[in-house]
Automatic annotation (TrEMBL):
Entry-linked Gene3D superfamilies: Creatinase/methionine aminopeptidase superfamily
Domain Peptidase M24: 16-215
Organism expressing this protein natively: Fulvimonas soli
InterPro entries found in the cross-reference section: Creatinase/aminopeptidase-like (IPR036005), Pept_M24 (IPR000994), Peptidase_M24B (IPR050659)
Name used for this protein in its record: Metallopeptidase family M24
Amino acid sequence: MTTPREAVGQRFDPALMRRARERSWAVLADIRGRMRPGLDEEQAKAMAAEVFRAHGVERLWHPPYIRIGPNTLKTYREPSDPGVRLGADDVFFVDLGLVFDGHEGDVGDTFTVGEAPRQQACAEAARALFDDVAAAWRTRGLSGRALYAYAGERAAAMGWRFNHAIKGHRLGDFPHAVHKAGNLGDLGAVPSPGLWVLEIQLAHPGEPFGAFYEDLLEGASA
């Protein structure tokens, strides 16, 4: 590891980190497939708890966030506005922090139901921006701070508002929090692969919805 902020526990295993990531994405896909118009966020989280049991989730390292409609503008620190239900033509995102085999997964993505072309464009933009920033990390060896500066510039060029309060974070063997690594967006060093989550949150410049995407930075950086 190149920095004390990348410390891990004695049981840390990169293969188990990759497996936790894969299983977390499988759980998220299952939740997505069960989302139906009419559900509110509390009902969606109750459904998610059933999915966790079905997939053998060991525990949660952060509570699930399922944000619907205007609540897609909220960060994880902000409570949702109550009473928001998934409409027939609407947007939602799912953010999961799961533990499998003592290792943490953290995945998030945004989806639409019905006919919601503007919301779908926002969701696609969040994924595209993630790919762009992750590619810059792999090819240019950018620090965490530089990655988020680049993300903000690219989001503006794409015509979306970038949420600078979301800055990514560490993962590891549970609990990674004992290492007090701080945010990816404050990291002056180049983040090592398989340890840091890149989070992207966008908002429509004039409409009350946004999109969220996150995943582990993997592959060799420059």
